[in-house]
Please model this.
Amino acid sequence: ETGVTQTPRHLVMGMTNKKSLKCEQHLGHNAMYWYKQSAKKPLELMFVYNFKEQTENNSVPSRFSPECPNSSHLFLHLHTLQPEDSALYLCASQEQGEGNQPQHFGDGTRLSIL
Amino acid sequence: GQNIDQPTEMTATEGAIVQINCTYQTSGFNGLFWYQQHAGEAPTFLSYNVLDGLEEKGRFSSFLSRSKGYSYLLLKELQMKDSASYLCAVRDPWDYKLSFGAGTTVTVRA
Model:
């Protein structure tokens, strides 16, 4: 039990589909993150939310659309994805401003684009 | 930009010791984290260093030299369950974002 739950664990979709990834944190943290993890590459930060406000968008294509309705939930809406978007998408949460507190990760959603 | 380097793969024998090095060149520094990630699972926090020196936690230790931009993670008395990917990450002092290395896959053999 990591305290951060992601659903679904696996997702296969066509390039024209619309789907959403969900993340929920049970740790009372005030910041949440979306990362993309591709094989043999560093984790890429996609979006950051602090106190439900988006503070970072690392030049992510508009086919990825985040939503943070409250400090415990984070969504990533997907639309018209490309084959190169196939990857593991990780959600993380953190209590920002608390010194050495680490980010806590979910198990991720393995996304495959056909 | 941020540049964090670590070896791609390492192999060691059960019961042995393995040292995973991480070098970094970043625009700022507010601590270095090590995470362990088993295949198909979440990265889990192992250690944090912000001052120079060695931090020990059971079989795992982490070392930091800020002047050299260098850290290592030391795994002692290796067990089969230690086979995983180990991620090095540096935190930015202004926005607390983490910049990650590509990870080191450690394989423990019987």
